[in-house]
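pasting input
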Amino acid sequence: MKDRIRMQLVVLVIGFLFVGTPVLAAMTSTNYEIRFDAFGVGGDDTSNSASYQLRDTIGGNAIDQSSSTTYDVRSGYRQGIFDRVAAFQTFVQNRTTQTAATALTSNTVTVNSIANIAIGDMIAIVQDQGVSQKTAIGKVTGISGTDVTIDSQTLSSGALTINGTNDVVYTLDGTTLSLGSLSPSALSTGIFAWQADGDVDGGFGVYVYENHDLQTIVGSTTYTITDVVDGTVSVGAKEYGARSSDSTLTGSSFDTTDAAFTTSYQLVGSRTDNALNARDFLTIKAAAPATLQDGNYSHTLTLIYVGDY
Amino acid sequence: MWVIIKRPRLFIVVLSGILFIPISVFALGLAPTAVDLSVIQGNQADQIFLLGNEKNVVKTFRIELIGIQFGSHADELSFLPISDDQKAWMTLTPSFATLEKGQVAEIALRIAPYAHVESGLYPVGIQVVEEASDNSGVNVESGVVALAFVTVGNDVQTSGELIDVSLSHTLLAKPITIHTTLRNTGAGMLQPQGTVQIKNLFGHVVEEFSLNEHARRIPPDQTRTFSQTWGMEEGDGFIKHIQYEIRQPAIGLFTIEMRTHFIEGDAEQMMTRHVFLFPWRFTLLFLTVVIVGFGVIRYTR
């Protein structure tokens, strides 16, 4: 009996020594990329999803590498040349597609109408539109009845609570961001989003600059909506600015305050490592007093992606 | 005439990459995003960039050269108009490109410094902007900047310094992250190379990393920290760590040896650090099992 117990203990101890989870053959994470891979069979150049891209190759052909002080040839198909490719897309709130949002569960938002929403669209879910606005953006992956599911939420601040009171959804397929009619009793807002896909280790920065202040010209007089200077675009004031959803900016105030656009490049988004489907957005805010000169105010914002080096 | 068109195969691969990017996803693609060009006064250097229109409609792109200034910290950049003097010997063609959906066009950068151009590093950006229509409201343009680090002259001083090697911790368990900080003390761009070797008590190399696997650069007067992790992060939790300690056992004193050089033929700079590893979680569990086991044995007697 004692020998049996001893034997069981020995087996138990040995068992602990060999405890381990199997090493997974498949690599998975929330966001990964296999740059170059060669499969024995199968494979193509186009595999991708919301969270990965894969460039793979059927086998390989005449793969070789030669180099000297003046050249480096990695021959054959396909070699792991580090091709730094950047792709960049912007998305602008389309005010005409506004529909009320009544509930949000996980990544599924319930809307009044799906007439303007299609799978593949980028949308903005806005809680309490206006002064206390919170926003999430994401790409539509499914529509069932009036339930719209997005792939993920990129948030301006904390999680949204959608209860149907002043909560709305817009598609982000506009060409020009309309701020609507400015009112002395309300804050006009708009969403200007981007997605960066950079095969660039070390990440990237996204910068914004304007051609001139938000302005209208009446006769020979130029009227502008003043850039915000106190960190907050306030209802009834003549102020214009924006805040970024990226809260990790260095050397820029767009992450902590309502900041003003200038003709200089200012950082509004960044990543510090290789990123696919990296999304962020600006919440643009405009306020006007009752005395604001009538007119169509406009300017151009240019958003620039710069990869790390 | 000295014409540099680096890595023609790169262009082919990048071209293939851009063409295979799903059109519905991307709007604008540009490659490469960073290049180094060297040219002696009186000669010229050329670089081709590939621009792809990934939208489903015809788009017009504005292409221009802009100046780049480095800040005091890594990755801190500012942008400014390029000087008239530089415009005289740096040219970018074309200045506009109208591309069909999925079409790829070449952008040519030519650097042809006159004899009087001062030797030095001239960082510039190739800015490609998708033009927006001019409507009322906030018009939105998007673009990409590719960086070109142009070195003029063959007398630009290039040198660097290995500042520090630090470890996430020096005792007990993997994974250990090794941070290597380097400084560019010269006037040119640096792409440091080197290795991180981990040796056991007997001097055998048990792990080796490339210091700068992705050929990242350090601008003049800047420092940059490169990080490598010895061992894999496998999540938190006591059990996870115990499993990890069993699968990747490491015990004893290890030496971490960092060797780097900044330019071809330059003398190596080296730093070493020591770390003592002991799988304390597994040991604790093992002792607990043994003690409990003996307790059971004594009880059953």
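fyi Residues 202 and 254 of chain B are 9 Å apart (CA to CA).
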